[in-house]
């Protein structure tokens, strides 16, 4: 399959060029013919010029009339009927130049509309390509054979290799670690014990495991998701052009006015003149230009919208539904915190875990190794590494046997507290132990995108009245993310079918947009009025059924797209309204005999130029976000990179606070306090002072005023005050043990500083660092 895809690639540019030539060839030829006719007329060959113009009119009227008749047969009524009547009238009255001018305008509108429609085709290709086509089946003699998926029967024993997609619904025969986010939206890896059931479409994130088929391929979960997407796409109503919505009122008015002019004057030429002036070029030209301008702008912002109808609907949207994992969150685990046993070394625990996990393909292993390397830890080469699916990895590091994964046996008291803490925070726990027992735990999280909250605010400002998060994740985790980003409602533990039902319910009330990134989101994206896929994360299945695709891994580009879509639609409506208003005035003049057809055609051209110039305004404006100058981007890059070091100090600060809270009489309390205070003074305060001096003044332009950073400046004052408060305690304290009377105030300062500084960092990352268009969302979470 992959080879065939590579062989087809060279043909695609040629095919695209041929399609482009077919689109623009009629307009080019008709325009050339009209200009040649003008040259012949100027040379005195008026009969030949008239004949050429008549041919142009005839060439334009035949396909237009056929298309209009088909539309009327299917009970579709649009503005094209006026153009057809004007062309026919021009032929009957021998006003061939007027007919030729109308033909060029009609061809221009059609070319622009075809260009917008040709951006992509809506299909299920990637969704189907991702579906497994083969399975590894165990043979009675103990071997393994690869068979087509349709030959897998209920009861067959299969082998699912590392990274494989589970081919059919089945029962796990050995412990397995699975990434189920593609089907359920659950961001955390799930361990399945022997005897538990798994759905097709989920990914094996651990070692190979045995699976007994419970359903055949046609009846399995993944096939059901594909059918859902197909059904939703099939019954989705076709887009109605903005121009056709105006036609409902404009066309009957035009026909009545033309008929009245003919009946009252007895001159058919007046009716033709009315039709010529009424030719809806502001709708056929200005509207597509504004919409295509919008399509071009959102594409430059990293959002590919499939057609003009989708952009129009995006501009009218009132409700937005968003998936959580990979949309509002990063979609990949990150080591958030390392908790160690009493007296343990945090860096050593992380180093041991990352060293063992270096050879593991597990996605959690990647997160651990990345975190250790970002902290500058020197990883050792592990030996005797073995991996037990669903349980963890064991290996020797510097001669020491280390186990990373689940915690065997009865955990000590401190481990119970870690479990409760992880559960409350919605985090996964990876335990690190040696032969003597657990050394510590690494808490993993799927962080909220730094640009998510700002994006939600901008979407509200753009006119979206209802924002809902819909996810397959657990209620507690879902609620925490919903509170962080500020959505109106949250629906958790939704299956793909339930997501479709939710979208259908919301779509019945208002124009609805759905944003997602996984296979489980594809049916819901197809069901929504406008489906938006996070294509930069590799979600090809959801991208192929979506109406728009975010090609950059930044959620704030969705807000850009909505603002641009609303602006482009407003310009299109404005251009159409002004153009048609001027056309109505000219139609009345023509009805009274004041405008012959040729003069009316050129007057209509003048109106066209006016509305086209207005429509071109859609190429700029409409965005509430200001561009960030290059020098400010450099500052954002620099200070975003420094946040990693500040977070490391924060970790030490929290450890010290916990030590003082649990063992205030310990001899190591005062040295720990002095060490963390030294880092606060040497690293954190200079960072905050430099931001105050350099970064905040530079952000006044992009944020609109100096006042935009005033609350953050106040946070700097509070951070400095709390550091001084801790330093004051240390200045009055001799080395030794803490006195009981000073512990409460020290704890207030330590925990207060921890809370203020964490909130301050999060606000900077959400409000400031997310402004950098060159920086991905993960940058601020380093």
UniProtKB/TrEMBL annotation:
Major localization class: membrane
A Pfam family reported for this protein in Swiss-Prot or TrEMBL: Hemerythrin
Ranges where the P-type ATPase A domain occurs: 131-230
Hemerythrin-like domain ranges (all copies): 637-770
Listed transmembrane segments: 24-44, 50-69, 76-92, 98-116, 246-265, 271-292, 571-592
InterPro entries: ATPase_P-typ_cyto_dom_N, ATPase_P-typ_P_site, ATPase_P-typ_TM_dom_sf, ATPase_P-typ_transduc_dom_A_sf, ATPase_P-type_domA, Cation_Transport_ATPase_IB, HAD-like_sf, HAD_sf
Similarity annotation: Belongs to the cation transport ATPase (P-type) (TC 3.A.3) family. Type IB subfamily.
Protein name: ATPase, P-type (Transporting), HAD superfamily, subfamily IC/heavy metal translocating P-type ATPase
Source species: Micromonospora auratinigra
Lineage, opening ranks: Bacteria, Bacillati, Actinomycetota, Actinomycetes, Micromonosporales
């Amino acid at each position: 399959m992959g080879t065939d895809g590579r062989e087809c690639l060279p043909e695609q540019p040629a095919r695209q060029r041929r399609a482009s030539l077919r689109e623009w060839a009629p307009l080019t030829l008709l325009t050339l013919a009209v200009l040649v006719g003008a040259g012949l007329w100027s040379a005195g060959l008026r009969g030949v010029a008239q004949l050429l113009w008549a041919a142009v009119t005839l060439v334009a009227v035949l396909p237009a009339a056929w298309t209009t008749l088909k539309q009327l047969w299917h009970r579709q009524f649009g503005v094209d009927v006026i153009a057809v009547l004007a062309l026919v009238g021009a032929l009957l009255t021998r006003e061939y130049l007027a007919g030729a001018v109308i033909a060029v305008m009609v061809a221009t509108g059609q070319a622009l509309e075809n260009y917008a429609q040709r951006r992509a085709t809506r299909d299920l290709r990637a969704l189907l390509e991702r579906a497994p086509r083969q399975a590894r089946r165990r043979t009675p003699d103990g071997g393994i054979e690869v068979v087509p998926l349709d030959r897998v029967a209920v009861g067959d024993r299969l082998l699912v290799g590392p990274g494989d997609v589970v081919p059919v619904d089945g029962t796990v025969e050995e412990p397995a670690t699975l990434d189920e986010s593609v089907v359920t939206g659950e961001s955390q890896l799930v361990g399945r014990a022997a005897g538990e059931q798994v759905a097709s479409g989920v990914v094996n994130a651990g070692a190979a495991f045995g699976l007994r088929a419970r359903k055949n391929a046609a009846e399995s979960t993944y096939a059901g998701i594909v059918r859902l997407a197909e059904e939703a796409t099939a019954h989705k109503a076709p887009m109605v052009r903005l121009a056709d919505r105006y036609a409902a009122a404009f066309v009957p008015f035009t026909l009545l006015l033309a008929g009245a002019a003919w009946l009252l004057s007895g001159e058919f030429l007046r009716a033709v003149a009315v039709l010529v002036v009424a030719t809806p070029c502001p709708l056929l030209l200005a509207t597509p230009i504004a919409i295509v301008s919008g399509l071009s702008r959102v594409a430059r912002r990293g959002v590919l919208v499939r057609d003009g109808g989708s952009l129009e609907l995006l501009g009218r949207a009132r409700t937005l539904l968003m998936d959580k994992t990979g949309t509002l969150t990063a979609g990949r685990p990150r080591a958030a915190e390392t908790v160690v046993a009493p007296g343990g070394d945090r860096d050593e625990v992380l180093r041991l875990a990352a060293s063992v996990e270096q050879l593991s393909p597990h996605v959690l292993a990647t997160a651990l190794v990345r975190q250790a390397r970002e902290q500058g830890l020197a990883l050792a080469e592990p030996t005797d590494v073995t991996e037990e699916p669903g349980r963890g990895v064991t290996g020797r590091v510097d001669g020491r046997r280390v186990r990373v994964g689940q915690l065997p046996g009865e955990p000590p008291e401190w481990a119970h507290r870690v479990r409760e803490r992880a559960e409350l925070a919605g985090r996964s726990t990876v335990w690190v132990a040696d032969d003597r027992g657990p050394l510590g735990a690494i808490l993993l999280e799927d962080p909220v995108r730094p640009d998510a909250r700002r994006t939600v605010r901008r979407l509200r400002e753009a006119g979206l009245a209802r924002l809902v998060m819909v996810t397959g994740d657990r209620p507690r985790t879902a609620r925490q993310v919903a509170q962080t980003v500020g959505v109106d409602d949250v629906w958790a533990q939704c299956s793909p079918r339930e997501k479709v039902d939710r979208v259908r319910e919301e779509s019945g009330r208002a124009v609805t947009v759905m944003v997602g990134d996984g296979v489980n989101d594809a049916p819901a994206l197809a069901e929504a009025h406008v489906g938006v896929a996070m294509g930069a994360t590799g979600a090809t299945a959801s991208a192929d059924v979506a109406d728009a695709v975010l090609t950059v891994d930044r959620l704030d580009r969705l807000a850009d797209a909505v603002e641009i879509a609303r602006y482009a639609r407003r310009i299109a409506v404005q251009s159409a309204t002004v153009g048609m208003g001027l056309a109505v005035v000219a139609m009345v003049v023509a009805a009274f005999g004041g405008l012959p057809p040729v003069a009316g055609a050129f007057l209509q051209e003048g109106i066209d130029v006016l509305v086209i110039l207005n429509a071109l305004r859609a190429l700029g404006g409409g965005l509430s976000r200001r561009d960030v100058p290059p020098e400010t981007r450099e500052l954002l890059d620099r200070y975003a990179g420094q946040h990693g070091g500040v977070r490391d100090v924060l970790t030490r600060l929290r450890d010290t606070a916990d030590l003082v809270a649990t063992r205030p009489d310990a001899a190591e309390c005062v040295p720990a306090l002095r060490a963390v205070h030294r880092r606060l003074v040497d690293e954190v305060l200079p960072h905050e002072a430099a931001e105050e001096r350099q970064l905040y003044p530079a952000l006044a332009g992009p944020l609109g005023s100096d006042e935009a950073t005033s609350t953050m400046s106040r946070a700097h004052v509070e951070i400095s005050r709390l550091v001084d408060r801790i330093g004051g305690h240390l200045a009055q304290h001799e080395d030794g043990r803490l006195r009981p009377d000073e512990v409460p105030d020290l704890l207030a300062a330590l925990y207060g500083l921890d809370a203020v500084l964490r909130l301050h960092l999060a606000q900077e990352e959400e409000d400031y660092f997310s402004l950098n268009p060159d920086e991905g969302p993960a940058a601020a979470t380093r």
